[in-house]
Design a protein that fits this description.
The chain has one domain: Response regulator (Rossmann fold), CATH 3.40.50. Strands 2-1-3-4-5 form a five-stranded parallel β-sheet. By secondary structure, the protein is α/β, with parallel strands linked by helices. The chain is built from five helices and five strands; from the N terminus they run E-H-E-H-E-H-E-H-E-H. Helix 2 crosses helix 3.
Length: 144
Amino acid sequence: MNRVGDSSLWGAAGTCRALVADADATARATLVTRLRQRGFAVTEVQDASELIDELEATVAAGYARYDVIIADVDMPNSGGLDALAALGGGWGVPLVLMADAPRIQEIGDAPRPGAAALLQKPCLPAEIAFVIERAPHPPARRAA
């Protein structure tokens, strides 16, 4: 089986670096475990404020720490998409949003600026890898 890290899109060490944001500890732990089993290096945060802090640190560092951002649409202190919009977006990596089935139906075809995909929870690493492989990589945001 090919591991996700076999792609040329991944970080210098050949491992896809993922930032996972989900307030549901059980769902987050399951996704993180599955991603690590597939060769991802994962950083996890539990809410939108931690997501914002991590992304601000990434911008301050002046380089991309992640190859993909995976965020739940609904989290305390704002949802994943709202958090990224508040920061101005432009992270230079695909944004994969995830939501429970009822929420996906509610969102429907509403615009999701900057999102490469909206996946139903629980997401499989293969789905995320598929999105990453096919997503356009926007220009990275630079520190001011």
